[in-house]
Amino acid sequence: MSWGTELWDQFDNLDKHTQWGIDFLERYAKFVKERLEVEQNYAKQLRNLVKKYCPKRSKDEEPRFTSCLSFYSVLNELNDYAGQREVVAEEMAHKVYGELMRYSQDLKAERKHHLQEGRKAQQYLDHCWKQMDNSKKKFERECKEAEKSQITYDRLDNDINATKSEVEKAKAQFYLRTHMADESKNEYAAQLQNFNAEQWKHFNNAIPHIFKNLQDMDERRTVKLGETYRSFAEAERRVIPIISKCLDGMVSAAKAVDMRKDSSIVVESFKSGFDPPGDFPFEDFSQNLSRTGSDGTISNTPKGERDRDGAPGPRQDPKHPMSRTKNKLWLFGKKPKAPSLEDFSHLPPEQRRKRLQHRIDELSKELQKEMDQRDALNKMKDVYEKNPQMGDPNSLQPKISETICNMEKLRSEIHKNETWLSEVEGKQSSRGDRRHSADNHHHTPQGRESPEGSYTDDTSQEHHKPQQRSSPPQPGQPNPDPHEFDDEFDDDDPLPVIGHCKALYSFDGQNEGTLVMAEDEVLYIIEEDKGDGWTRARKQSGEEGYVPTSYVEITMEKNSKGS
Predict the structure, then answer these.
(1) What is the pTM of this model?
(2) What is the β-pairing status of strands 447-449 and 455-457?
(3) What pLDDT digit, counting tens, does each position of 289-311 carry?
(4) What's the CA gap between 202 and 9, in Å, rounded?
(5) Secondary structure (3-state) at 424
(6) If 0-12 CB within 10 Å is exposed, 13-18 middle and 19+ buried, where does residue 561 land?
(7) What is d(CA 317, CA 324) in angstroms, rounded to the nearest whole number?
(8) Nearest CA to 133 among 125, 121, 143, 144?
(9) Contact between residue 517 and residue 523 where contact means Cβ atoms under 8 Å apart
(10) In whole angstroms, what is the distance from residue 446 CA to residue 431 CA?
(11) What is the per-residue pLDDT across 216-257, written as a single tens digit (0 to 9) for each?
(12) What are residue 314's phi and psi, to 5 degrees?
């Protein structure tokens, strides 16, 4: 249905309709803009959420649990999902919103052109009508004037008193007005014919052509809206396969969670290498009591047998009666935090071995990089020596020297860490040998480990005098005979004091030859650490024994004198 034939007289209404069409198109464009801003904000919030829950970590702190790795995989997939939302927003911005705004500007220009043509045609028709109307009015005036002159002529011609000259004059005026009326008539007829022709052209050619152009423009606008509706949906449809892959990745990450693997990682992460503590020996404090006939029921063991069985074990320090009980809460309580050391000696053996091995691997990688750099510099130096025009070989010597220096430092570090690793592995192997030896000799109770990882055998046959207690075994050395140090402690003269120390942590002294100490307790140093991690000390009460060197703060005296 054509606007030109059906709406030939609705120019103003078509003007309003086409303006409404452009306004509606721009309104839809505004909707698309707000829609893509929603997508952009959604993607931005998703990325911020991923960034918040996936913080940057150092390589050593990267999680190894499958549940954590799966969660970070979910975050990565969610980050990719956010990227697809950004793709949707970009598609809408370029292929929908941008296209609509450009098309809106084109429509405005085209509509303005067609309306200007219609107004020009209407103005021309109005001009023709005015010309015709003016000629019509002129013809009407001339006819009236001619009628008046005819009436005047007839009156004078019938008047017997009128002179001949007056009659002739009236007659001439009548002929003149009649002639002018005839000319006005002819002009009016010509203008009327011209107006009718122009009006036919206007309503049958000009206006239908203009209205057809407006109709085509409006129909193209409608088609364009339909195309942008489809593009709006296609922007979503294109990313659905990739979004499905992201969701599949999240499902795969969920399936990758392995509770058994996580449990094994917990074991590997926190395994100390220590053996569980054995049974506590029974300490018979009644052996020093005098026996009479009435109290013979206390102990039926003859004195001679008691002497053969060995002296009773040493008593706890009366100042710290609960020290052993409190310190044994390490197993399920809070263990005193030892200071971090370069050789990781503050860690349990198994964890120390892993940390040292990891450091050796890292240093080896750095050493390999330095070696590759040295080889590359040497090759470049050879090229410069053969082709001096390419560069000065002496300019590379400082860099080569620096690389060699770095290699030596790394080799020294690797050797130092390998020495510590050998020490740890030696301790673990010797501890296993001692445990096997203890089983062969049927020692009771079981062997224990000191807090630093060295292995000792607890025995109920502790010597009566503090000076006759055996020292703890040196880490990394085979377990000595329980009476190996008896001769050393049989000296009547006590060892001289060479310094003093303050206990940083409490120590329960479970093992034979060790000394119980409480936190902040001050002890005398009578023998320095020989490299085994133990220092020999003496309490103010005179009791002597070994304490972990890492548990005390030592101050050596310049001029040591005997106590």
Answers:
(1) 0.49
(2) antiparallel
(3) 755 544 444 444 444 444 444 44
(4) 11
(5) helix
(6) exposed
(7) 10
(8) 125
(9) yes
(10) 13
(11) 989 999 999 999 999 999 999 999 999 999 999 999 999 999
(12) -65, 150
